[in-house]
Amino acid sequence: MMNKVTALVLLLLVFKGNAQVIDTLSTAKQHDKIALKQFVVPAVLVTSGALLLNTQANQNIQSDIRKEFGTDFHTSVDNYIQLVPVAQIYAGKYLGFKPKNDFVHQTINIAVANAIMGTVVTVMKHSFKEERPDGSNNLSYPSGHTATAFTNASLLFYEYKDSNLWYASSGFLFATATGVLRIANNKHFASDVLTGAGIGTAVGLLVSYWHPFQSFNLGKSKKTTALVYPQIGNQIGLGLVVQTR
């Protein structure tokens, strides 16, 4: 019973964070300027992860979730669903929802946000050098998969929240599922997932406000095609192609 309660507490914490993220991003847009209070939820997630690091509670959560899924559980689904919000950003328009940005600027936001997030996560991984639960390497903290998922879920929410709130929010379900599966796969501790979620949310919020290269225009005489695509292999990430003609 306690195992299920512990696992449930973790899930509720993540979903509670998602709900607060929605309020945060909504408030952000209304005021059209960024404020420190809008980073409270990301800060709480990062702090929670940091406080759990190398604690018995962290080990207990790991054990509880692993027992729920089974100690032999393994899936590669988390490698793919972390990128679902990216596909949703592009697909929303074709499903009848109106995005905030055009195709090119969606791509720029995705590329910039993931570049910032990837840099932060990589620096932290090599600085903390925390061993993964399965002992495969010492790059556990924070979770890059979770950070990727929450970065793009935050961008997705901003793109479509005024058009369809349910669609805009759906990315956080995939992001949360990614984090839980990273623990179930024994690749990350709860501390890694919470910190990754906080980093991703903060970066997504920042870039949604920042609008990098907002005035970027290649001119009406040129046709521009831009695409962010998943790279899956020894290294998992995102690639960017911009073509003009």
Q: What does it look like?
A:
It is built from nine helices and two strands, in the order αααααααααββ. By secondary structure, it is mainly α. Strands 1-2 form a two-stranded antiparallel ribbon. Strand 1 and strand 2 (237-244) form a beta hairpin. It is globular and about 50 Å long. The protein starts with a helix and ends with a strand.
Task: Give the key terms.
two-stranded antiparallel ribbon; 9 helices; 245 residues; globular; single chain; mainly alpha
Query: Runs with pLDDT <50, length 5+?
Result: none
Q: How much β-strand is present in the residues?
A: 5-15%
- The radius of gyration computed from the alpha-carbon positions, rounded to a whole number of angstroms, is 18 Å
What is the number of E strands? 2
* Number of helical elements: 9
Give the oligomeric state. Answer: single chain
Shape: globular
| SSE pattern | HHHHHHHHHEE
Report the span from N to C terminus. 62 Å
Percent of residues in helices: 55-70%
Category by helix and strand content: mainly alpha
Provide mean pLDDT, rounded.
84
The strand line-up of the biggest sheet is 1-2
* Major pleated sheet: 2 strands, antiparallel
Summarize the structure.
The chain is mostly helical.
How are the secondary structure elements laid out?
Elements lengths: L1 H30 L8 H13 L3 H14 L8 H4 L2 H8 L11 H26 L15 H17 L4 H20 L5 H21 L13 E8 L5 E8 L1
Antiparallel strand pairs: 1-2
